[in-house]
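Late entry, written up from scratch paper. The run itself happened at the end of the previous shift, but nothing got recorded in the book at the time, so transcribing now.
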Amino acid sequence: EDNIGNVDFVQYDFATLNDATGEFSINNRLGEGGSGVVYKGTLASGQEVAIKRLFSIDGYGLREFMVEAAGLVATFQHKNLVKVLGFCSEDKEKLLVYEFIPNKSLDYFLYDPIKRELLLWETRYKIITGIARGLQYLHKESRITIVHRDMKISNILLDVRMNPKIANFGWVEKHGISSRIDETRRYMAPEYFLTGVYSEKSDVYSFGIIILEIVSGQSYTLFYEPSENENLPILAWRLWNQGSTTKLIDPILYENCSDIEVTRCIHIGILCVQENVEHRPTMAEVLLMLTGSIDLPEPKGLLCQPNYREFDISLAEESEDVPNQLTTKSTSTRLEVDQDMYPL
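Output as recorded:
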């Protein structure tokens, strides 16, 4: 039984969504990824929504789409995940409708020197803990286990109260889109880059990079020192060993942050980016660490493989002219940035 009737979601007609987006006007376009193009829409009621117009998938009928859309609605219900509101399926058109998140993504604030001043420590800590709760839900609390595989700053959307909502998760691999590895390389765990193996602990690694970026207020790419094979996690590890982790903190935070909380977050970030998968905490453990409910173990090391260092250096060279943005190029494993902020 697919139990579609037990799921509370809306089936929209295509004309409604066409009108809502101004006939899918380029002015309403929010982004494009491996599964489709996302548009901002305004329904007749005045409600703002995000509408994903999916790319054509052969042999994907109305019933199958309804079952999957219903499953998406029923499975992923958490305040720190982008909410699915409904769907549309007419002829070859298949669309998903999501809540619209007005404050854009975290990188919009974090990488802008003016907007970053709005991110006081209380807000940053709330964002960190919210992301952790959302990831823990995907890993252990939803009806099916989901490894996100594309955790990055731009996939964290912020609502009007600056609560984080994780976007770009879901079941794309069911429809042959998994050949696109939707992973921005600076967040990639070393085991995936070197062996192609990905797990919940790989999401934990990406989360660790996100913590370090939130605390420092800077993009990972600003920390490259090619001559020293240094990147953000290696820098954090070096400062940790020197007892100088406060040098990693965004100067904006100096007068309004809790030293204990900030230091704890840096410590957790370092634990999350350890090369040995077994040494990284689970997201359940991360949540306990964030609240101070358990003691934090000492990091065991961050000895990146040479190939991974070479990868970091090549990325630094790519980013030389635009230090706050990531430029990607193809590798032997097809890696592409997915700017699609809403999940299939």
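The first helix runs from residue 14 to 20.
(Scratch paper discarded after transcription.)
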